[in-house]
Structure formats: C-alpha cells, structure tokens
Write the structure tokens for this entry.
Amino acid sequence: MTGKNLQQFCTELGADEGASAELAVDLKLAAGTEAVRMGVAAREIGTLEIIMIGLAGVIGAGIFVASGIPVRIAGPAAVLSYLAGALVVIPVMLYLAEMEAAWPSTGAFSDYANRYLGPLMGFVTGWMYWSSGVLGMATEVTASALLMHWWLPGWPLWLFSLFFSLLITGINLLDIRGFTRIEGLFSGIKIMALFLFILVGLTVLSGLWPGLAPVGTVNYFAYGGFFPQGVKGVFASLLLVIFAYSGIQVVCMTAAQATNPRHTIPRAVIGTGLTVTFLYTGAIFVLVGLLPWFTVPVASSPFVTVLERLRIPFGSHLLNAIIITAVLSSMNTTMFGVTRMLKSLAERHEAPRFLLKTDRRGIPTRALAASSIFLSIAVILAYLLPQKVFLYVASATGFISLFNWAVITITYIRFRQKLPRFKAPFTVPGYPYLPYTSLLLLLVVVASVPLARGQIPGMVSGLLLAIAYAMVFFLFVRRRYKATA
C-alpha cells in the first residue's frame, strides 16, 4: 500500500487530514519496519500465550520472596496496597496497549517516547528499562542460587548462579514457539501454586483443615487493627508493591511476534492485569490471615513459613522448588524484554549498531549475549554488596518502573492529542481524565517513598541513573539527531 493510499485509508477510519498523515507514518512503520525486520512468520503467538508470558514476567521474587516487607510495613492493610498497585499499573498498561494496537513495536514505550516526547525521553526510558532488568535479574539469579544452596549446602553459590545464567540464556535462544511453551509451563506452575495457596489458606481460615482449629479473622484485627501502622503504612509500602508488578510491561513487547497485535495485545493486557490482581490480593489476604503481621518473615519466603506451620509433608521442599521455578521464569521473561529493548535502541543509533544482529528466526543474539555478560557482572556485584542489596535493588526497580510508567502516560496523552479523532481498534475509555489521574497516583507513590526506611537509597539511585543517561544523551547521542535533522 502506498503512502497516499495509507493516508486515504486513515481518513476513512475517521482521522482528520493532519491526523491521517501522522497515522499513515505509524502504519508504514508498523507494517513495514516490524514486518520486514521480524518477518511475517514470526507473528505466531496468540492472546493466551502472551498472557502466560506476561504472568511469567510479573509473578516472581516480588510476591514469593519480597512480599513480607510490605506486610511488615502496612500490616493486614497490605491487601489494599496490592490492590492499589493494580489500580496504578493496569491503566498505564492499557495506554501502552492502545499505542501498540496502532503501532506494534519491539521497543514498546521507548519507541513511543522517542516519537511523541523526543529522542531524549526515548533514550533514557529505554536504557533505564534495560538497566533495571539486568539488576533485577542479578538479584533473582542470586536468590535462586541461595534457594538451591538450601538443598545442597556443600556446593558453591557461584556454580548455581553460573548454571542458572546459562540456562536462561539458552532458553532465550529458542524460537518464539519454544520460548512460549516453556514460559507457559512456568506460568502454569506459578499460577497453580498461588491458587492452591489461596485455597488451602481459606480452608484453614474457615476451620475445614483437618487437625487445626479455625483461625477466623483474629489476625486481621487483633494486633493493632487492620491498619496497625495507620493509613501511612499503606502508602509507605507502595513502592515495593510496585516492584512486584514491575514486569508486566513485557506483555506489550511481544507485539512484533503476536498474531493480529491490534486485538491480541489489549486482550492480553487486560487478562494479565486481572489475573495478577486476583492472585496477589488473594495470596496476601490469606497470608495476613494465617500469620500475625508482625511475625511475617522478611529475610525468607513467608509462603514457606505458612506451609511449615501447617506441617504439610514435604511442603517446604515443594514450595522451594516452585519458588525457584517462579524466580527463574520471571528472570527468563525479563531477559526476553531487555534483549529486545537493547536491539530497539541499536536500531535508533542509541546503542552500538553491532547489537542489531539477529539469526534467521529473528532472535537478537548479540543483544542477548551483551545482556548476559552484564548480568554476570551484576551477579558478582550482588555477592560483594551487603545483604540489604535486595531492598535497594527492589526500591530502585520500583522507582524506575514508576518513572517509565509516568513517561508512558505522558506519551499516551501526546499520542491522543496528535490523533484525536482516530477510530483505533482499541481505545482506553476516560480520556483525558484517566491518564491525568494516573499521573497523580504515580506522584502519590513517589511522595510516599520517604515514609519507609530503606527505600530512599534505591529511589535516589534510580534518579541518579536517569540523570546519568540524560548526560550521556547530551554528550554523545544528540549530535547524531542533529546531523540527520
């Protein structure tokens, strides 16, 4: 289809003359750049498979390992914290899904920020996402090694870390069908584990578990009430709750491999968001009902503690295996996202051009190799840093997610302003009030960070990282845009 025909097609869809010209460019980029670069055959995963990839990216250490920290900060009201986290993140992902429906892209929000907010924001958000992904994977592979060490204490931790790093790299070398099959299996295990935990917990709370007296609602209200730390505790816990949701944007980074992304991506975002919200809030509701909030461990998995209290045979071993699977699955999906982001940056001349290399199946092998090398360096640093590194990295990752989500929201506002009357296949309701409300909620989360000790260093680190990338852009990258202007 020629550019003239594209513009006429857009006008027929309902866009005005200026908007149709703008959209015609987007459609050419979507239909040309992505289809040619990735290959039509690469578009072979559907809505359910994308949902499973999204769940694999979200459900990991943030809920299985780190959920004890928000509970200790907010008490039983942590249930509301996780519900609030969903109310923050789901609308933002819907904004991204609408832009993906108009312009599928492997670089997702970084590409859109580059187009609608300028090269600086595209550069910073892309590299921030890549950096937070690598740091997050380092903590996850370290956590996996420590969990394996519980079974095999005589084996060195570095050996487990090396094995898991190579395993994740190997899985990401599979074609998209093989990758989705493995992630579908991992996601199924995690979903079933959380669902069974909720089911068992409700059985115990109601007094139907054999050999145990009913727990009832005593732990929700007996120790300082539902808000033992006040409403302030809910706000103080939000940043770490955001960390638990931080992998959800990988859903929109599958657009280049999705069948009919204009329809599959929005459906996948909604499906992933609702499933995660149910599993997270349900699991935390059961957790704070079974354990007094001030006894929930922060240095180990609270889910393991619950199973130990219930004396389920081999329960701790089974859950240890499930947590390892969950953490590796999240790490695997993160690697999928960061390699494609790195390749997208290289396409815009914002990363070394040699990272553009893909194999015949469209897998960015050099971007994968580079990410794996930096993962190894980050793992070494994780062993050298203090034990509080997990809290620092989780806080930094949460802040970076907030930063990127704010950029997505602002980008979406600009997107809608440029194409005000375009009848897209998917449109988020409530514009312009909903995106501005999202920005307000994101600011509230940032403002609440100082309410909890230990979160400020992570937030400051994330802010300094953004400033550092902005300086790199002005010193080395901006001249390339000036030369091509």
Observations:
- The radius of gyration is 22 Å.
- The chain has a mean pLDDT of 83.
- The domain at 45-422+431-484 is CATH 1.20.1740.10 (Amino acid/polyamine transporter I).
